[in-house]
Structure formats: C-alpha cells, structure tokens
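User: Sequence in, structure out. Go.
Assistant: Echoing your sequence, followed by the structure tokens.
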Amino acid sequence: MIFYGLMAVGNTVMLLVVILLLGYGLAEYPISLWQEARIVPSLKRYRCEAWEQVCVYMCVCVCMCVYICASGKRRRLCLWQEA
C-alpha cells in the first residue's frame, strides 16, 4: 500500500517538473529541431533573406552614387547621368 502511494507521489512530482520545464521553453527545443530538419522551408527562408540583403545593398549603392554625383566630386562616376 505504501509502495503505491510513493509511486503516485513520484509521478505527481515528475509531472510538476515537466510542467515547470515546459513553461521555461523545453518545448521550444524540439520544435526548433523539427523546423531545422525540414530543409526546403529553411532554404526558402534563407533565399528570401539573401534577396532582401541584395535589395538593401542595391538601394545603398544607388543612393551613394546619386550623392557622389550631386556633390560633383567624382565626375567619372556620373557618366550615366550625362546621357
């Protein structure tokens, strides 16, 4: 009879520990492993991030070129505006 009581207390304590750990993100680790294991969505996400960086880079390049041409410091860079 005492054995069953100890088993019930042990199970209750372990369930409380699991609930406590789930509250601190224990469930996030297996979810992140599952999402990283799926290669196609990861590649799509990285491709989108790379494209966003290329767009930002091109915007910065155009802004710098316009600024340099407007300041008149480098005339050779502004050949595309003279046409």
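User: And one key feature?
Assistant: The chain is about 85% helix and 0% strand.
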